[in-house]
Amino acid sequence: MFWYNGSLIQSHTLELDINDPGLLYGATVFTTLRVYDNSLDSSLTNWQAHCDRLLFSLQAFSWQQPDWKLVRQGAEAMLTHFPVLRITIFPDGREWIIGRILPEDLAAKQKHGVACAVASSECSRSLPSHKTGNYLGAWLAKTTVSGNAQEAILVDGTGNWLETSTGNLWGWVNGSWWTPPLTAGILPGISRQQLMSRLHNHQQVVREEPWTPKFVQSLEAIAYTNSVVEIIPIHTVNQPTGSLQYNPYHPSFQKLRGLLFSMTEE
Predict the structure, then answer these.
(1) Contact 229/106 with Cβ under 8 angstroms?
(2) Which fold has domain 106-265?
(3) Which residue has the higher pLDDT, 203 or 97?
């Protein structure tokens, strides 16, 4: 089941023109959201923020906007079946919405953390400020990680950590949260933006600095965030020079989760 171009379709296949730029070049923009309380209007679902993300990219690329009423209608139809929605917009304004369930092991990952591996610098995201259909670099990074790694960390040409293949990085050291800056070439994640705003509102320092190979060794705890999995601690990072270990049970995570779910107070 999926929604496409104004219709709810019962099928496992989508028919596209063989010259469709979305098929040929990955010329689409998308956003993935988690529906809370079975409602797009829940403050935790952040519907408007996801629409704004799409609009930002559409305007940047001078693409046609979709019929936003149809986008909303499609999302409403799909959320009765799926808690996670991926909304894709084509250059001519067509909307395509698919759904999926939450990972079965999500609670375990949130509690105990995951292992990651540093990816090759060649596995970069195209147009990193936008979520485009050309996600090959991040997909390759995650699907080719070695050992027991469940996620990949993308790096730049000098080895600085940027983000994971699916989320933004957070680190704790010296009583503060640290995250790579947007100028490094990372996605301005919705969860990232909200957590930064919430931390600032609570007079807590968030430092945006490059995550150099030396700096990451000083961190006490690290995690990644996105709108679906919320906050996932990272306990191990495998890299060519050896693995790094972090505390997935660090008390700072409990406080960060509290801020994430107190956003309804804004």
Answers:
(1) yes
(2) D-amino Acid Aminotransferase; Chain A, domain 2 (3.20.10)
(3) 97
